[in-house]
Design goal:
Number of strands: 19
Number of domains: 4
Helix content: 25-40%
Structural class: alpha+beta
CATH architecture of the largest domain: 2-Layer Sandwich
Radius of gyration: 21 Å
CATH class of the largest domain: Alpha Beta
Largest sheet: 8 strands, antiparallel
Distance between the termini: 60 Å
Strand order of the largest sheet: 13-12-9-10-11-14-18-16
Number of helices: 13
Strand content: 25-35%
């Protein structure tokens, strides 16, 4: 028997975007999985697993109990947005450390979060819920233009759209409603004040009610009216971190989170932070990996530590910068070519990873007909000493990468 504590991971995700999370947790803990499919790439990192319908709360709970009967579990953790609430319910049922189900529901529902932000005087966006186009129109008249229409409980910027003129509202409401209809928790739509300013996220670790902001991620977005994230940069010495950390900690506290890793999104309006949302898990798009490349801080291990009732190590052991850029086609269509200059890639040590996620012949569909899951062809990651150097290197690498699509219309 292993002397290491065993942590249960709910929904490990795919290898491309979440493989690093499981690998880093497995470096410190024995791992059992609750997963929706038979393990493949996960096998080297786990000691046991159960395959379960992750969308069925009762089945997930039963499978978790079965694993707990076979092992002495010390904690339960997930980095899957859609399983935050079921994971909290499972942890409580097993008598393990976890935020409450109510707290996780508040994090998942943007309308509830806005109410709590207002109650605790956390600067956010004015917001109104709308179930019909008429209600959305009334909300827009109250809040003014430009406005943002979004699902109340989804992720990945899916269904989020900006409205600049009244005549754009019907199509925008239909777009947001289509995104909201995919939620298992709340199919409502929000109409919100548009926060005009650069977008960032603050990567936080909370232990016994004390929140530490360990990194700030500067975000890059695609063309309006959509909010698709096209890239991120993390710099260990970014002076912005000290400016945004108090607002991030206040938002975490307002939601009642006492332990865990948070990905707190905000915009800087007139240089001051205004909250968008708090995600009670490690950020997507490889942000946790960028944090480790830039600072050495291991967010997946910290999440597992907290789930097991341990104090995480927040000591940075690196001081650099890292960035990721998503690879999108210029137009929707069939992917006919994807290529990187191999001599460049082979002789460029700061180009840390090039990852294709679509194959030749696949359909790439940009918004409004598609979303990040249908539009991205891949991504690449670079490192450097500063944000400026990373940005320059991202641009340099972009010139060495080709993506070609053929229109099918």
């Amino acid at each position: 028997m292993s002397a290491r504590p065993l942590v249960l991971v709910v929904s490990p995700g795919d290898e491309t975007y979440r493989g690093y999370c499981l690998e880093q947790v497995a470096a410190a803990y024995d791992v059992a999985l609750l997963t929706g499919a038979a393990p493949s790439w996960e096998k080297p990192f786990i000691v046991d697993h159960a395959v379960v319908d992750l969308s069925d709360p009762a089945a997930l709970l039963a499978a978790g109990r079965a694993l707990a009967a076979r092992h002495n579990l010390t904690g339960v953790v997930t980095w899957d947005e859609w399983n935050l609430v079921p994971t909290a319910r499972l942890a409580r049922a097993l008598g393990l450390s976890s935020p409450s189900v109510e707290v996780m529901r508040a994090c998942r529902n943007k309308a509830t979060a806005r109410t709590l932000f207002a109650r605790h005087s956390v600067p956010s966006a004015a917001s109104m819920k709308a179930h019909t186009l008429l209600e959305a129109g009334l909300a827009m008249m109250t809040l003014g233009l430009p406005a943002v229409i979004k699902p109340a409980a989804f992720a990945g910027s899916i269904g989020v759209i900006r409205v600049d003129r009244p005549e754009e509202l019907p199509a925008a409401f239909a777009y947001a409603s289509a995104g909201a209809s995919r939620s298992r928790e709340d199919t409502g739509v929000l109409v919100e004040e548009y926060l005009d300013g650069p977008e960032v996220s603050v990567e936080c670790i909370t232990h016994h009610g004390q929140t530490s902001a360990v990194a700030v991620t500067r975000k890059h977005l695609g063309p309006p009216p959509y909010f698709d994230e096209t890239g991120h940069t993390v710099d260990a010495t970014d002076p912005l971190l000290a400016q945004v950390a108090p607002a991030a900690a206040a938002a975490v506290k307002a939601l009642g989170i006492t332990d865990g890793v948070q990905h707190v999104e905000m915009r800087l309006v007139g240089g001051r932070p205004r909250l968008i949302e708090v995600n009670a898990r490690i950020g997507g798009d490889m942000i946790g990996h960028l944090v480790r490349l830039a600072t050495g801080i291991d967010l997946p291990k910290a999440a597992a530590d907290l789930a097991c009732g341990r104090a995480p190590d927040l000591t940075p052991n690196r001081s650099g910068a890292a960035g990721i850029r998503m690879l999108y086609p210029t137009a929707s269509g069939t992917l006919t070519a994807r290529h990187i200059n191999q001599p460049f890639a082979a002789h460029t040590p700061w180009l840390r990873q090039v990852q294709w996620i679509r194959e030749i012949g696949d359909q790439l569909v940009l918004p409004p007909d598609g979303d990040l899951f249908t539009a991205r062809a891949g991504f690449y990651i670079v490192t450097g000493r500063t944000t400026a150097e990373v940005t320059e290197r991202l641009d340099t690498a972009a010139d060495e990468i080709t993506i070609t699509t053929r229109s099918d219309r």
